[in-house]
Amino acid sequence: MAPDEIKALVRTIPDFPAPGIQFRDITTLIGNGPGFAATVEWLTTRAQDAGAQAIAGMEARGFIFGAAVAARLGVGFIPVRKPGKLPCKTIGVDYALEYGSDRLEMDPGAVTQGQSVVIVDDLLATGGTACAATTLLRQAGAVVETAVFVIDLPELGGNAALCADSITVAALMAFAGE
């Protein structure tokens, strides 16, 4: 399936979650078997090319794509969670996102020192979530140099934020505007 065909499977919901936001809804993409498979294959190729020894995905939609990529590569999946979701001792970081603020946590024992971890997520907006995940993973000892996304919203500056964190970014598709 060609990238333009995959992009056509993403539904745009205007004014969600706030007026002026064009929400890019991937539920229509993941509900299409061939589209979902082609998306996972694209992400997997980039993660493999980056030398991924593990995949990290942020809650919640990063779990969908990240776990699929990890399974396809035969490597472990590291869940980067919302606060209070893990039953063990965690490390965490607060961060700003496109329309508010949040916190991410992870089990610091989920990675080994020097392990090459690729971040996989559905959407790159401001880069706040991916930068926070990078901080946590590096704090735990991972080497994080690559992040791959299904969608990039270039006008929101996420690519630049990740590049400032020494992260190479790849995205299957981009949408203009918010």
From TrEMBL:
It is an enzyme of class 2 (transferase). InterPro entries: Ade_phspho_trans, PRTase-like, PRTase_dom, UPRTase/APRTase. Gene3D superfamilies: 3.40.50.2020. GO terms for cellular component: cytoplasm. The keyword Transferase applies. It catalyses: AMP + diphosphate = 5-phospho-alpha-D-ribose 1-diphosphate + adenine. Pathway: Purine metabolism; AMP biosynthesis via salvage pathway; AMP from adenine: step 1/1. Its EC number is 2.4.2.7. The keyword Transferase applies. It comes from the Bacteria. One of its GO terms (molecular function) is adenine binding. Residues 53-150 form the Phosphoribosyltransferase domain. Its main location: cytoplasm. One of its GO terms (biological process) is adenine salvage. Keywords: Cytoplasm, Glycosyltransferase, Purine salvage, Transferase. NCBIfam families: apt (TIGR01090), PRK02304.1-3 (NF002634), PRK02304.1-5 (NF002636). Homodimer. Belongs to the purine/pyrimidine phosphoribosyltransferase family. Catalyzes a salvage reaction resulting in the formation of AMP, that is energically less costly than de novo synthesis. This is Adenine phosphoribosyltransferase. It comes from Qipengyuania marisflavi.
